[in-house]
Amino acid sequence: QKKQVVSDEELKQKLSPLQYLLMRKYGKENKEEQPFSSALFKNVEDGIYRCVGCGLELFDSNVKYDSGTGWPSFYQAINGNGDDGSTSNINQRDDYTSGHHEMELSCKACESHLGHVFNDGPAPTGLRYCLNGACLKFE
Which one from 54, 107, 110, 130 is the annotated catalytic residue? Predict the structure, then answer.
């Protein structure tokens, strides 16, 4: 996936204030959306979850599950898990903003913050992609 140059000004115009805060100010203000607050948390429709900033496909609904955390959760990303940096539509990087080590997820195309990935998910991957629902659009 090619990086899309999307300026902060373009995203500020396109996104809601909450979406902009979550996606572009994460790390500076250390914000995540409140658990159980996203309509996408309970969504059970078939479709694709995309980055709300640029539209890149991120997750298929068939790998979504209820992790009990209050955030939309998935066990597999489209085009790989982002740990190899080659084919995945997401990037992973070390994140210590919460005071302990986590793996932050960002969109490979527009580099906006999406959430985090943890090693406590279900088979077959054992991964839990925990996403801010406000950072996703569902189609």
Answer: 130
